[in-house]
Every structure is written in structure tokens, then in C-alpha cells.
């Protein structure tokens, strides 16, 4: 594991280190951002926001974004590892979805082969039911699940993704076999909403933004959020408030390619810290409803190791790993 402290200590004696391949105090000409997903999704939005904020803050002159989607990032990850190796002016955007995809696809290339720079943001899930549902609270939901897990259908995103993992964690926490849950995967928030509004499923889960409009319109009832504490401006109890010890964030972060020098690693951490602590980044997070989950260097690497183990265990419980 990269020892950030020792490198930072050594950096104090160096007058000028390469900032992603250029002098530490100089502006980057072109930052290359690799997105292992198609344009328009969450990782792509993160990349475009990084570009906009870094330009506004004077950290870069321009950026070049490359998209290569497929299989939750598993298609693009080998390209970043093998073809972007040693490129100190490059970063990759990724997140929790990729962790699950690597496991379910049994990918030979994993995040252990890149340099974890920082977790930047997180989005917590909300669990909703149709407005006319007899389920009024999260306690009602878990009671119904324990009574007959196969009868409590839950709509969410792709199998093995964040939504499916959350249901698996909840089931295990309340003593239900995760393999017995009735998870109904959809390709996007629109079809999942349609199933909920048509009373075709018992409940649904996704990021708050997916269901916010229908919740505010009174067509869906939010019964719990997966955050450690109540979300600002959202009067919905957490899962933990119901006595179920589960929390989960669909986090997003950035990584450097393998094969870069120690000085380039230091500079990459420096760039990331300046970006994450800038007023521009904080403003964008607030505007987009992203939770600021900044965690850098070795702390992020330790978090990543633990998250991989937790997700792998959950996917095994579900029967997908």
C-alpha cells in the first residue's frame, strides 16, 4: 500500500515536484480523465464536474474525457490499467458499482492494480413504497419480509448493484436468507418508478434523486434512508433508527493509473486535495445533492479493502458471487 505520509515528508525537501507530470505549482495543460462508463451516467457526471471545477479553480487548463462503458466498469478497467499505465496526468473515475461488477464478473483485473486517490462523494439510498401501501414504516417493511420474504418484491437497478446489495444487507441484518428475497432488477429509474406507481412491486430502492419528484408529489412514501444520520432537508428516518444496523453509500472516487512515480503520486494527491477542498467543488456537491465523502490516500485504500470484503460477502449471500 502506498505510504502517503512518508512521501509527503520527503516532499518537504523537494523544491518542485511534478504535478501529474508537471511542476507542482504549475497549472496542468490537459488532465486526462478516464470514465469506464457511457456518457451521461453518474461517473461521467462526476468527471465533467471535476473538469469544470478544476478549470474554474485554476488547477488545469483543459481536460480530455474518455468514455468506455460496459459491465459496470469491468470492460474499461483493463484499458486504464494496461494502456494508461505510467501516465501521471491521468485519473479514472469509479465507485462502488465497479467493486460489485468486478466480483460478479470474476474480473482478473481489479482495483488493487490502480492507485486509490480519494473517495469524493456518496449517494445514499431511499426505500419507498406506493402511497396506498399498507406498509407505513420501515419496521412494517421488515416485519413483512420476515413473515414471507418472497412476497415482498423490491424494485431496483441491475442485479448485484447498489440497490440489490442494500436489500441483501437488510435481509441478513433482520435474519432473512438474502437468497429468499424477491429483488426485481430494472434497467433504470424510470421503469422501476412505473412498477411502483402501478403497484406491481411492494417497494423500491435507489438514490434519493430517482424518487424525489414522486415522493414530493405524494405518489410514493419514503420509509427509510441508508445514511448514518438523517439527510439534510429530508425528513425521512434512517434504517438504523428502526434498529437495523445497516448503512450504505453509493460512493464515487478517483484513481491514478499503475506505474506512476512516487513524486507523481504525491502530486496526484495534492491535486485531489485542492480539488476536493475547493469552494467550487463544495458548491457543485450542494447543487447536485452529492454528499461530500472525501477520504484520501491510505484511509481511502483501507476503506476500499473493507468495502470489497463487505460487498463480496453480501454478493455471496445473495448468490451472485
Structure description:
The chain is an alpha/beta fold and 321 residues long. The protein has 2 domains: 4-122 and 251-318, Bordetella uptake gene, domain 1 (D-Maltodextrin-Binding Protein, domain 2, 3-Layer(aba) Sandwich), CATH 3.40.190; 123-242, D-Maltodextrin-Binding Protein, domain 2, CATH 3.40.190.10. Helices cover 39% and strands 23% of the residues. The protein is built from 11 helices and 12 strands. It has helices at 4-11, 42-56, 77-83, 96-104, 138-147, 162-173, 189-197, 208-216, 262-276, 279-288, 297-318; strands at 18-19, 22-23, 28-35, 60-67, 90-95, 115-130, 153-156, 182-185, 203-207, 220-225, 249-256, 291-296. The strands form 2 sheets. Strands 3, 4, 5, 6, 7, 8, 9, 10, 11 and 12 form a 10-stranded mixed beta sheet that branches. α2 links the parallel β3 (28-35) and β4. α4 packs across α11. The chain is globular and about 60 Å long.
Give the name of the CATH superfamily of the largest domain: Bordetella uptake gene, domain 1
Beta strands, count: 12
SSE order, one letter for each helix or strand: HEEEHEHEHEHEHEHEHEEHHEH
CATH architecture of the largest domain: 3-Layer(aba) Sandwich
Count, helices: 11
Low-confidence stretches: 1-25
**CATH topology (fold) name of the largest domain:** D-Maltodextrin-Binding Protein, domain 2
- Mean pLDDT, all residues: 91
| Number of structural units classed as domains | 2
The CATH C-level name of the largest domain is Alpha Beta
Fraction of residues in helices? 25-40%
How would you classify the helix and strand content by structural class?
Answer: alpha/beta
Q: How is the biggest beta sheet arranged?
A: 10 strands, mixed
Shape by Cα distribution: globular
Radius of gyration, in Å, reads 21 Å
Q: Tell me the span between the first and last alpha carbons.
A: 26 Å
Amino acid at each position: 500500500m502506498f505510504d502517503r505520509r512518508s512521501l509527503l515528508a520527503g516532499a518537504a525537501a523537494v523544491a518542485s515536484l511534478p504535478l501529474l507530470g508537471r511542476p507542482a505549482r504549475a497549472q496542468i495543460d490537459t488532465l486526462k480523465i478516464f470514465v469506464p462508463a457511457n456518457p451521461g451516467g453518474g461517473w461521467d457526471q462526476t468527471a465533467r464536474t471535476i473538469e469544470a471545477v478544476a478549470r474554474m479553480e485554476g488547477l488545469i487548463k483543459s481536460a480530455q474525457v474518455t468514455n468506455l462503458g460496459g459491465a459496470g466498469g469491468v470492460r474499461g478497467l483493463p484499458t486504464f490499467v494496461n494502456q494508461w499505465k505510467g501516465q501521471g496526468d491521468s485519473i479514472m473515475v469509479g465507485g462502488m458499482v465497479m467493486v460489485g461488477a468486478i466480483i460478479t464478473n470474476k474480473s482478473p483485473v481489479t482495483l488493487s492494480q490502480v492507485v486509490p486517490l480519494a473517495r469524493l462523494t456518496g449517494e445514499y439510498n431511499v426505500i419507498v413504497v406506493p402511497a396506498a401501501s399498507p406498509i407505513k414504516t420501515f419496521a412494517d417493511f421488515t416485519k413483512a419480509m420476515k413473515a414471507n420474504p418472497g412476497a415482498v418484491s423490491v424494485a431496483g437497478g441491475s442485479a448485484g448493484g447498489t440497490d440489490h446489495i442494500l436489500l441483501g444487507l437488510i435481509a441478513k441484518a433482520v435474519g432473512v436468507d438474502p437468497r429468499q428475497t424477491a429483488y426485481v432488477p430494472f434497467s433504470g429509474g424510470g421503469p422501476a418508478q412505473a412498477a411502483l406507481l402501478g403497484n406491481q412491486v411492494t417497494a423500491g430502492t435507489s438514490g434519493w434523486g430517482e424518487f424525489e419528484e414522486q415522493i414530493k408529489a405524494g405518489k410514493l412514501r419514503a420509509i427509510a434512508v441508508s445514511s448514518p444520520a438523517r439527510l439534510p432537508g429530508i425528513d425521512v428516518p434512517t434504517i438504523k433508527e428502526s434498529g437495523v444496523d445497516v448503512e450504505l453509500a453509493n460512493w464515487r472516487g478517483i484513481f491514478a493509473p499503475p506505474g506512476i512515480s512516487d513524486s507523481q503520486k504525491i502530486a496526484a494527491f495534492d491535486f485531489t486535495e485542492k480539488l476536493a477542498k475547493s469552494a467550487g467543488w463544495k458548491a457543485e456537491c450542494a447543487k447536485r445533492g452529492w454528499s461530500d465523502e472525501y477520504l484520501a490516500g491510505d484511509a481511502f485504500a483501507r476503506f476500499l479493502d473493507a468495502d470489497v470484503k463487505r460487498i463480496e460477502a453480501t454478493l455471496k449471500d445473495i448468490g451472485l458471487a
